[in-house]
Amino acid sequence: MGEYLFTNVRILDGSGDHPYTGEVLVQGNRIKQVSRGGRSGSGGGHTVIDGAGATLMPGMTEAHTHLSWNDQPSLEAIQQMPLEEHTLFTAEMAKRYIEMGFTSCMGAASAKARLDVVIRDAINQGRIPGPRYSAASQEITTLGGLGDTSPPHLDFPEMSFGCIVSGVEEMRRAVRQFIKYGCDTIKLNLSGEEIAGVPAEETPMTDEEAAVAVSEAKRRGLRVAAHARSNESIKMCIRHGIEIIYHASFADEETLDLLEANKDKHFVAPGLAWLIRTSKNAAEYGVHPDSSLGMMYAREAEIATDTMRKMHRRGIRVLPGGDYGFAWIPHGTNAKDLEYFVDLVGMSPMEAIVSATKLGGQIMGRPDELGLVKEGYLADLILVDGDPLANIRILQERARILAVMKDGSFYRAPDVTAQGRSSLRWAG
After folding, report:
1. Are 276 and 345 in contact (CB under 8 A)?
2. In the beta sheet, which residues pair with residue 205?
3. 102 contacts 59 by C-beta, under 8 angstroms
4. Are residues 194 and 200 in contact, defined by beta-carbon separation less than 8 angstroms?
5. pTM for this prediction
6. What's the first-to-final CA gap in the chain, in angstroms?
7. Which residues of 63-86 are buried (b: 16+ CB within 10 A; e: fewer)?
8. CA–CA separation, 54 vs 63, rounded Å?
9. What is d(CA 334, CA 65) in angstroms, rounded to the nearest whole number?
10. 110: nearest Cα among 140, 71, 130
11. Cα 225 to chain centroid, rounded
12. Over the stretch 167-193, which tens digit does the pLDDT of each residue have?
């Protein structure tokens, strides 16, 4: 860490306010000063980053991250990667995320019990590059539910994608085990998933099982997230105070009313890219658009998009992220969610960016120091070649992410001359 002065930049601060030309001084790991207009850009012992009109904005947050999903076409292929190779792959993905401008990620489930924890710790220790990461448990599922991939004729739980429980006491033990492992978040699979052979509108986990999971987690200060597509599973999240709701496709009007009444208690990350691309782009991997599975995903994509429009209009917090890490929805393409938010959900480009920045700081549990370009906040910043408000798609282009800073240190640094000054080209 050092002192850096970003000058001649267009500041998109993440608050929803209009951008303005200005300068940002970073000292250590914090934003020391934000100034409108320009000064000389010299003196003070700073390294000067001349943005040449580029956009400076907060680093983005991926709200539903599976760093250990290994870009394979099935749950089984993800789980069966040997542990050693899997650890290396997950570390490589951490680097990919931060290089694409995602400086924070909310872990949504680990493919193996301790992968998320090990990668989080390695990032925090400075051993590998990566985003701020909230480490999740393995997916906890019921016997025969989403994530139970062990063959019927082989009773080896280790072969299953998820951690399988049946009943309250098995759930209690599983949650306590993941607390022992050092997880930040407990992940529950409340509902089904079509590709796994468990209908998305079914809710295999019981109310009692969910209740004890939440009780055990919250007793020890952990957060709880849930795979919740079915209407009943979303209601379970509201009843039991499950803060992070993934998908929420089939919420009916009564459930939307409940969510709106509790909108300060929940976050929703729908994972629209998973639905859309599974229905349209997975033919090479066995899910043809005209197949029954492809049509089921197309149906859910349409319903989920409409549901998210309603949530957005009601002021429910909808954030980008979801299930990247399959062959047809690979890691690093996550900013596609922002395009879907604008084109399909009805968000303005500014609202989409706020969902990835300001709301990102909230879901990471640090709303007073993450997600804004603001004095006193942590220096998690990205410099973008172009105007994301004019074209939200540029955030998907690695070449347009000119620099990435996390905690006051560059993870993708601009070229700096011997005189301690950088000049970046503006591509218009």
Report:
1. no
2. none
3. yes
4. yes
5. 0.94
6. 30
7. bbbbbbbbbbbbbebbbebeeeeb
8. 26
9. 9
10. 140
11. 12
12. 999 999 999 999 999 999 999 999 999
